[in-house]
Amino acid sequence: MPTAEPTTASWIRRLLGYCLRHRLDLFGAFAAALADAVVSVAVPLVIKHVIDLVSAPAANSVGHRNSITPWVLVLIGAALVQYALTFIRRYLAGRLSLDVQYDLRGDVFTSLQRLDGAAQDALQTGQVVSRSISDVGLVQGLLAFLPALTGNVLLFVISLIAMLWLSPLLTLVAFAIAPALWFVALASRRDLFPANWVAQQQAGNLVGHVEAAVTGVRVVKGFGQEQREVRELSAQARALFAMRMRVVRFQAKYSSALTAIPGLGQVGVLLLGGWLALHGQITIGTFLAFSTYLGQLVGPVRQVTALLTIGQQARAGVERVLEVIDSSPAVVDSPDARDIPPGPLELRFDDVSFGYTRSEPVLRGLDLTVRAGETVAIVGGSGSGKSTLAMLVPRFYDVHSGALSIGGVDVRQLRLADVRAAIGMVFEDSFLFSDTIAANIAYGRPGASQDEIVAAAEAAEAAGFITELPEGYDTLVGERGLTLSGGQRQRIALARALLTRPRIMLLDDATSAIDPRVESEILATLRHLIAGRTTVLVAHRRSTLALADRIAVLEHGRVADIGTFEELMVRSPLFRLLLGGPGDDAEGIDAGELCQDAEPSTTVVGGVTIALWQRRLPDSPDGSLNGVAVAGTSTGSLAAGRAGVAGAGGGPGGGGMLDGVPATPELLAKVAALPPATDHPAVDEAQAQASDEKFGLRRLLAPLKLPFALGIVLIGLDALLQLVLPSLIRTGIDRGVGEHHVQVLFIVSAIALGVLVFDWGVSAAGQWMTGRTGERLLYTLRVKAFAHLQRLSLDFYERELAGRIMTRMTTDVDALSNFLQTGLATALISVLTLVGVLIALLVLDAELALVLVVALPILLAATWAFRRAAVPAYVEARERVSTVNAQFQENVAGVRVAQVFSREQHNTRRFLGAASDYRNSRLRAQGYIAAYFPFVQFLADVSGAAVLGFGAHRLSHGTLTAGALIAFFLYLDAFFSPVQQLSQVFDGYQQASVGLSRLEDLLRAPTGTPNAEHPRPVDHLRGEITMAGVRFAYNHSDAPAVRDIDLRVPAGQSVALVGRTGAGKSTVVKLIARFYDPIEGSVRADGVDLRAMDLADYRRHLGFVPQEAYLSPGSIRDAIAYGRPEATDREVERAARAVGAHDMIATLSEGYLHEVGERGRNLSAGQRQLIALARAELVDPDILLLDEATAALDLASEAVVTEATQRLSRHRTTVTVAHRLTTAARADRILVMSEGRIVEDGPHEELLSRDGTYAALWRAYISGSDATDESSDGAELADVAGAVTHARTVVSD
């Protein structure tokens, strides 16, 4: 990525390139805007001619009166032309902005889809989502605004020319204010860009925090850290508030100045123009034309003011978006890329070295050949490079040295698409998309028939549980497939890979979450399906190794040994240890002796290994350690920190490429020169975070009603003060010019100047007050919504896509806050102005005022029709943009799955389809806007023509003064402008209305696990668990996940839950953690119903390790200390040592200060699980819940963990979900589950002696072969065998 700050010309040129894709809209919108400006300049000249005509001495003649009528008709014709031109400009500009927004979204999405592995690992999802939503929206707003601005700039220039022609001397007044405007504009640009830039960076950080907390919700709730996450979000939001208030202060300062300076010009015109009129050098018509032109100058200046804000924000947005679009993958096709060879393919690693940073290789000179059609299993300890080896084959990364060849050709010389098309891969994390089960299985072959999908499911042993689901293959799975169990997800992922009929199979611990019985059936099928296919198995289980022709043992990134199972059992102590753990090795080698690497230093001071608590400073030229870093300074929340240096696991650290627009020295210097951002929202935190089942706009505004009212009063006063000027001008003309009183003219001008200066201060204060109140509301909304998200139970997260939740926390919150900050104030001010102008007009001349009043019923009818048509379009658009955001976020998370199955183009088309639907909805609404807004102006122009005709007639008869007529014209725009402003506010109102409705739905959503009215505090738990008559179904499905559960676990007992995948094991753990409440029955701890306990207190006494070991960004220390952020470094290291994670951490570049990437992606699955175990150990739980906590560990590492866990669990209750039955066998008691019930209960030996379900599972596990031969359930096995036979026939084709 380039490091230089993009120049203004570069980002404008790039944006223009996008606009030129839609030339008709671009040129049409600008042409219409320019033509409209020309017509607008001509209108005051027509009015001047009419006023001069009727003011002439012979004005009473019939000829003069008759000559007025054609000019009135000319004005009506001009109004009609302006309506057409404004409609064209608005519609085409709106379509252009939406089309460019669509193009930018598509390019961002496409760019993300082609990122290589290193760039994927560096992704900051929150930042990327912020670019997709906020930044692209800023660009859309800028483009919709530019044509009107261009027309107004031309209007400004031509008006000045017309003024110069009318009176060169009077034009000097207009030219006199130009330097002041220029100076203020330059100062505004100097301050606003860096202020907006740094605020947008902080907004991205805040979105990242929300995204991390939503994604890691199970960890947050498992450790009872909801309040901590809310505190962290509040801190992020306070920092953003302070930065936004700095922007508001600049805007109030410069915007009020840019509005007041043209007002000074009007005072100058009154004084100088009046003096010239007194001396007969200009006519009254010229004075009115000048006043009109000067009024027309205010609009362009205000728009330029707005551009300085919108433009600076949009520039930052464009640069951030273009940074993503311009990111180019390092892994690309070579210019002379070749076709992949036909037939079976050999894999060959020749002296391969690779690391996620070049200075820290994971693979070191690895040599390995997998012959065509051969199956080779890869075994090794956690972090030995097993998954890394598999990731190199589909070219997520390229080797740093050596070569990887497929079919005898270096993979870098083959077409990337061909390579991936030849591969079927099952990742260690089974990512599924929020679609039907059938669509997920057919993900790699969207055109597969239903029979082929079913056959693949049968081969993966997934057909049984799928057909039991309410909708079968049409069942929608939740985001990332989290509505299914880990084993169910793995089987669907396996079916997905099998359906592609790959020539190379990569199975990365593909059955780790599947029970032994189902695994044995899968393996029996796989023996036939992988025959003739080159297959690489990353394996931890002995049973999986039975598929392999040879087994490669990895150690320190090299192949330590390779051979058949029998050969390795004889000659490799490491292999025996990896399979059996301590005590099983013939030579009596203990697990610890072979699993740990040498520590960088054994110097231990105060329980801390010094070398593992030092940070490698990035500016060190030789990479040496320059000092001891301060540990534990990070907040340790799920969003704290940003990933940096890569580790030895599954990918590089996060950060880097997408952290924002490059922070160049020049830009940082501008930021440093800004005044400090020190504002505080001054909001009652407890009230902001409190649950509010009756949440609504009135309750939201209640705590801020006084500052909100004060802001309205100030802006209302500003509007009223602006209405004073036309009356003063009338007095100056009638009493000063008309009666030749120079003194009156000077006095009136002085009063006007005083009013203007006072209004300048009022305007700045009003903008600051409303801006601050709006930012306080935004802060309150963010905190309230996030706090309620923390209260909601897991069923909400399983129903709602993360993208939709993010839309509520970003788009909806921003829309409501922006309306309350500016739109609502504008609406109230418009009403006040309308009433005030109407009163002023009636006072000036009631008869002439009636001409305007006639237009009101027409205007009200048009407004009613507009709202009726536009509201459904806005609601539809809001729903569709939620879909766009949800798809975007999901595809960012699943990009690696998309790439390995060559779905980038299909996913892009699907995303663009959703984006197109949103664009069409917004375009329909844009059509209504383009028709309505110009109609309001058309009515104003026609009314102005009528006033001119009627007023000129009365002026010629002496029943109306010239000053009154001029004042009437100056008030004319002020009469219709409020109505037009109300119409413009309608856009924001609709977005805010929909946003408020969705936020109300969110904030009124009841939690599935509410606290009792008077919750019982929990200081300590003995650990006794009782489940009585428990029945539970996810989302109140008709098919219960568990039923008739009656269970008592005495304090201190260790219990293992075993059974087939989907039997309800993880559900039991979730009920104990109170992630859900049972539909029937009760769950008790120490005899107290969990529903009566304080939920956060209770969970803080739990240690929870979920199936997917989600880690928070930050350092390893922060990840371990998540449940106890106040823990000392000594306590953190002691917890890591206790579960066997310390030795693994010692291999990382910066030990405990090593940065963890987003979701822990820069660590292997085994490394993540070890850290998750240490995290649970550190809280010293009274109840330990392990949901397949060691599934990704090799048996030796698992043995160390299990041994440590057994030692540590002697005084705590432990509930373990176990598919590795060696883990279950060590428990005091084993519960066997089937179809949601406990069917067997007892210790290991007793259950074996019963020769029932557990005994069959055990035989399947220890034999590594199909357990069907020894099963007593013959009928079921016959059915399974038939399904497998059918699957073999179809899938192995």
TrEMBL record:
Major localization listed first in the record, in broad terms: membrane
**Domain spans labelled ABC transporter:** 347-581, 1025-1260
Transmembrane segments annotated in the record for this chain: 24-47, 67-88, 141-163, 169-187, 254-276, 708-729, 741-762, 818-842, 848-866, 929-952, 958-976
Q: Which SMART domains is this protein grouped with?
A: AAA
Localization terms from the record:
Cell membrane
Q: Where is the ABC transmembrane type-1 domain?
A: 27-313, 709-991
For this entry, the protein name equals ABC transporter ATP-binding protein
What is the species listed in this Swiss-Prot or TrEMBL entry?
Jatrophihabitans lederbergiae
